[in-house]
C-alpha cells in the first residue's frame, strides 16, 4: 500500500516538472506554485486517507473473536479430531473459531456435561485442557476412559462432528510468575493435566525464573501420558523443569523410580519445606495416591486436612495445594 502511494507521488512530480516552462514569468510562476501546492495538498490528503484506511484494515485484521468458553453456561463445542495415546486414553480436539482462544486461565479447569436421559439427571465432570491459554482455533482434552466412567465413556462415544457441552473456566489456583522460587508437583495418571498448564505457563514466560520439580507416578510405562512432550520441555528448559518418573510395575532395565510415592521419594524430589512461603507443592491424581501423599480433598472448594507423605517431611497446609 505505502509503496504504491510513493510511486504515485513520484509520477505526479515528474509530470508536473517536465511540463513547466524553463523560465516562467512571475504570473506563470504563481500559477505553477499554486498548482504544486494543490498537488501536495491533494497528495497529502490522498496519503492520509489511504493511511487511515490501512490502519482501519489492520485493526480489523487484528481483532479477534471473544473467548469461546462461557463461565456462566454450558456451550456446545464441536469435536474435530481424536488421537489415541494408549489403550484407554485419547486426546479429543474441539473446534474454535479462526483466531479464537478458549478463555482458559492458569490454573483452571472446565466442566463437561452429558445431558440427562429420560428419568435421569445430567452428568457433570471437570477436565483440564492441555492446550496453552493462547492457543487459537482449537482446544484439547485428554480423557482416560474408565469402565464405570459415565462421562469418559460419553466423550469416547463422540464422533468427529458431534458436540460436547462445556462450561468454564473454573479457576483453581491463580498463578502469577515468580510467585514462588520453587514448585513441587506430584501427579498420577491424568492428574498431569493441571501440572502441564503451569509448566507451560512458566516455560513460556521468559521473565519467570521459577524452578519446577515434577514427580509423575503411573502403573506401567505405557501409562505415562505426554511423556514425549514432558521430556522435550525438560531437555529444552533444564533450568526450569526437572521430571522424574515412578512406576508400580516397571519394565526390565527401568532407570526411573519404582513403587509408590512415599515420604522418602517426596523428600528426594520435592523442594525443601524450609523454603516456607517461597514454595508450593501441587498434588493431583487418583484417590489412593492423594490419600497417601497429601490427604484427600473434602470438596471442590475444601482442601481438607494435610496428611500423608508431605506432612511427614515437614510441609504445612499453607504450601500444599490439591487439584
Tags for this model:
24% strand, six-stranded antiparallel sheet, six-stranded parallel sheet, oxidoreductase, mitochondrion, transmembrane helix, FNR_nucleotide-bd, alpha/beta, cytochrome-b5 reductase activity, acting on NADH, Elongation Factor Tu (Ef-tu), domain 3
Overall residue-averaged pLDDT value? 86
Task: Kindly provide the name of the CATH class of the largest domain.
Answer: Alpha Beta
CATH superfamily caption of the largest domain:
Nucleotide-binding domain of ferredoxin-NADP reductase (FNR) module
**Can you tell me the overall shape?**
globular
The total of beta strands comes to 12
Number of helix segments? 8
Radius of gyration: 30 Å
| CATH fold type of the largest domain | Rossmann fold
> Spans with pLDDT under 50 lasting ≥5 residues?
1-60
How would you concisely characterize the structure shown here?
The protein is built from eight helices and twelve strands. The protein has helices at residues 2-19, 26-62, 150-157, 192-203, 227-236, 263-269, 287-293, 308-312, and strands spanning 75-84, 89-95, 108-114, 123-127, 138-144, 163-171, 182-188, 211-218, 241-247, 257-258, 279-284, 320-322. The two termini are 52 Å apart.
Please give a structural write-up.
This protein is α/β, with parallel strands linked by helices. It has two domains: 75-171, Beta Barrel (Elongation Factor Tu (Ef-tu), domain 3); 182-322, 3-Layer(aba) Sandwich (Rossmann fold). 32% of the residues lie in helices and 24% in strands. It has helices spanning 2-19, 26-62, 150-157, 192-203, 227-236, 263-269, 287-293, 308-312, and strands spanning 75-84, 89-95, 108-114, 123-127, 138-144, 163-171, 182-188, 211-218, 241-247, 257-258, 279-284, 320-322. Strands 4-3-6-1-2-5 form a six-stranded antiparallel sheet, with helices on one face. A six-stranded parallel sheet has the order 10-9-8-7-11-12, sandwiched between helices. The longest helix has 37 residues, at 26-62. Residues 72-176 form the FAD-binding FR-type domain. Its EC number is 1.6.2.2. Pfam families: FAD_binding_6, NAD_binding_1. Keywords: FAD, Flavoprotein, Membrane, Mitochondrion, NAD, Oxidoreductase, Transmembrane, Transmembrane helix.
Amino acid at each position: 500500500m505505502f509503496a504504491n502511494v510513493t510511486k504515485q507521488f513520484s509520477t505526479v512530480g515528474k509530470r508536473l516538472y517536465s511540463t513547466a516552462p524553463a523560465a516562467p514569468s512571475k504570473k506563470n510562476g504563481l500559477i505553477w506554485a499554486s498548482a504544486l501546492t494543490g498537488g501536495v495538498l491533494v497528495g497529502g490528503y490522498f496519503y492520509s486517507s489511504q493511511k487511515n484506511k490501512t490502519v482501519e484494515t489492520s485493526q480489523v485484521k487484528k481483532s479477534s473473536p471473544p473467548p469461546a468458553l462461557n463461565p456462566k453456561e454450558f456451550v456446545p463445542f464441536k469435536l474435530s479430531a481424536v488421537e489415541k495415546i494408549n489403550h484407554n486414553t485419547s486426546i479429543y480436539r474441539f473446534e474454535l473459531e479462526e483466531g479464537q482462544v478458549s478463555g482458559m486461565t492458569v490454573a483452571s479447569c472446565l466442566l463437561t456435561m452429558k445431558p440427562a436421559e429420560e428419568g435421569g439427571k445430567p452428568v457433570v465432570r471437570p477436565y483440564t485442557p492441555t492446550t496453552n491459554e493462547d492457543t487459537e482455533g482449537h482446544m484439547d482434552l485428554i480423557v482416560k476412559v474408565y469402565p464405570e466412567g459415565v462421562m469418559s465413556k460419553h466423550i469416547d462415544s463422540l464422533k468427529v462432528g458431534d458436540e460436547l457441552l462445556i462450561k468454564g473456566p473454573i479457576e483453581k489456583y491463580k498463578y502469577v510468575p515468580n510467585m514462588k522460587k520453587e514448585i513441587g508437583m506430584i501427579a498420577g495418571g491424568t492428574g498431569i493435566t493441571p501440572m502441564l498448564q503451569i509448566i507451560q505457563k512458566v516455560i513460556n514466560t521468559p521473565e519467570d525464573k521459577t524452578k519446577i520439580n515434577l514427580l509423575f507416578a503411573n502403573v506401567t510405562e505405557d501409562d505415562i501420558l505426554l511423556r514425549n512432550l514432558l521430556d522435550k520441555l525438560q531437555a529444552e528448559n533444564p533450568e526450569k523443569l526437572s521430571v522424574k518418573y515412578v512406576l508400580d510395575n516397571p519394565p526390565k532395565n527401568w532407570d526411573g523410580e519404582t513403587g509408590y510415592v512415599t515420604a522418602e521419594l517426596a523428600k528426594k524430589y520435592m523442594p525443601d519445606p524450609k523454603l516456607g512461603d517461597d514454595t508450593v507443592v501441587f498434588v493431583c491424581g487418583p484417590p489412593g495416591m492423594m490419600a497417601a501423599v497429601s490427604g484427600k480433598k473434602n470438596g471442590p472448594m475444601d482442601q481438607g486436612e494435610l496428611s500423608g507423605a508431605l506432612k511427614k517431611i515437614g510441609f504445612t497446609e499453607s504450601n500444599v495445594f490439591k487439584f
